[in-house]
What does this fold into?
Amino acid sequence: MPRFFLHQPRMPWFQRIAVIVGLFFVALGQMGTARAEELPSFVHNGTLTICTNPTLPPMTFVKGQDVTHPEGFDIDVAHFLATRWHAQLSVITMDFTGLFPSLGAQRCSLVMSGIIQTPSREKSFDAVPYQDTALVVAGRANTPALTSMDELSGKDVAVESGTSYVTRLGIINNALVAAGKAPMVIQQYPTEEQVVQQVLIGRVFAFVSQDVEIFFRMRQLQGKLHILLTPDIPDYRHFAIYLRQNKQDQALLQTAITALETDGTLATLRNKWSITDQSTKNSVNTSSATSIFDWNAFFSALTSTAFLHGALITLAVALLSHIIAITLSVPIAIALNNPKRSVLKIALEGYVALFRAAPTLLQLLFIWNAVPQFFPIFREQWFTPFLATVLALSINESAYQVEINRSALSAVDPGQELGASALGLSRRDIYWRVIFPQAFRIALPPTINEFINLLKTTSLASVISLQELLAVTQIQVARTFAFTEYYAAALVYYLVMVFFFLFLQKRVERRFTWSDRKKVVSNAA
Amino acid sequence: MQHESTATSMISVRGMSKLFGDFVALDRLNFDVKKGEKIVILGPSGSGKSTLIRTLNRIEPHDSGTLTINGKLITDKTDPIQLRCMVGMVFQNYNLFPHLSVLENCILAPMRVRGMTRIEATDLARRYLNQVGIPDQADKYPIQLSGGQQQRVAIARALCMQPEVMLFDEPTAALDPEAIVGVVSIIDELAEQGITTVCVTHEMAFSRRIADHIIFMDQGKILEITPPETFFTSPQTGRAQNFLNQMLRY
Ligand SMILES: Nc1ncnc2c1ncn2[C@@H]1O[C@H](COP(=O)(O)OP(=O)(O)OP(=O)(O)O)[C@@H](O)[C@H]1O
Ligand SMILES: [Mg+2]
It folds into this structure.
């Protein structure tokens, strides 16, 4: 699970000593004040929990293989805040679109994810700015620079979905249309590296992001990108930390940030993460975007613990959910196959209809973001993304499995029950010894089919921050930009899992020699 | 619970009715079957023969009147499992368990219901499989057997519960003429061994040979209970006469 104590990022020994010494004095200084100083109400049980989407380097991103350990400027700031409040830091990673719902559902104390301070967000949440920035438009290296936003008229522009850029570009589009010009064509992508990739592969003309990220990308991609335009839009001048509305908490956070600014901590961190460094020379990451297919990147992804871990989570979620779903669905199927009408039957029919009709993604989001507003117990620490996913997928899958089991049970000749009860077998034995084994044979192929679907459906759970295989892939891609290689590695994992279960199905089916000859032993009255 | 039954009666039916909704499937039936007696039930299609035979082991519970089996009054409170240990049944379509081998079909109920060990049940099953003439098919699955062989397995399976009464519901109706001879001769043999038998069939020669009494039904009512000689030569009702004319035409 993506909860951890933040560990100190790697840095040269002299810097490390400087930071430790600095920390010592900061801590000393705080001894007196912090005791007297009130703790913000969002620090619970000595834990400061932040939500972040680690795909925006250098603010928040995954540097190494371990996707549960994001790093970056924001994470370091969070670490200093936690220290100041004598709290442990816990970091939850998730899709960008999940950040604010999670804050609202009290899953985290703060959202720290390189997010711009905007008036519209401040209607729902309080914000404390901590870093100056500017909105920039970037394009491929050979694209000529622009002089005004108007020149983007009619061009394709990519942005990360859920960000305020979408609204801002909409406003510019309105102005363009009002001036009789063609609007920009805005394409939205769920992660920042996909946004950049659209420019690299030439699908879009430009993308919109913050200067700090683009500096980082320019270094990472070794000059494949450059800044086309830095329009001065007042709304985009600050990154802010967001919290649930509470004036006192906001003031306490503001005090803390001011203190970090005054004692030079933020300056040190800006330097450490090259927040304002525009040079493209000292590239930290070697980009693999140069060759068509980098086999080394592919094999290192394939053999990385991050991918293995993601695949195991995918497998565990699918297996657990399906086992629970089958367990739920058998009694429901038996109840529904009873010809008598009853209130229970109507209720069960409603259950099946509801969960077959509702999109799985919606069910996941509902359980993760909406349910905690009614039942606070679901926002506690034990209710992890893993549990939430298993809960949502079990319920969802049980509705489908009910249909499979129903038709399997009714495909078993009614003469079987008759024959078994004439022999004096108990209800229990009739079901377990006679009907279930036959229904199992009928239900097996569609059930394995369902399982394979479920295995792939788990990838939806990245929206509620489950670190399954596809989420891991995307985070790793944000780090390396090796799209093809990492997608291929993920594909290999999915294929291996699916083929294993198909193989298993064949093996199990081979044990049903009794059904070899397709001869119908029909038995009615 | 011991009342209203004559000491020698294995089955005693008094004013027994069965309804399906408003439809009267069995209408106030009265008859007795003595221990060791063979009864054949005849009647046109839909007359209620299958329904009657199923009430005798309570696969279809009756709605009114009384049913006494081996001196026990059969009611809602009767343990159906105990009753079915006493009354075995063979169906037109065999209803063998396709996922179990012939031997497993035969030993399932003795083990689960009678509590026999696998060895005891297997011994018993082999004895009855031998009796019905298919000792060498024990390890096959039902789907690998002919219809006649399957019906023999079904008979052996019912006998493995060592019932006092055997019910047969058109045991030969799904078989071809050659297989009929085999199955009929097995039932003949059982009847000779003295097991109480109630059989629904359309095999006239067979009925005549084994039946102590013929019960003739129509529209849920018993119209005649007579020895076969009387029934086949001089039926008392017009409907029985009609029925016989139709049967003999084939
Ligand atoms: N479960 C049931 N629900 C409603 N009606 C039924 C049911 N079982 C039988 N019946 C009706 O009861 C009547 C007697 O049926 P039954 O099967 O006993 O006839 P049968 O004499 O065995 O006929 P056949 O010679 O065709 O087997 C029929 O009209 C049938 O439609
Ligand atoms: Mg019938």
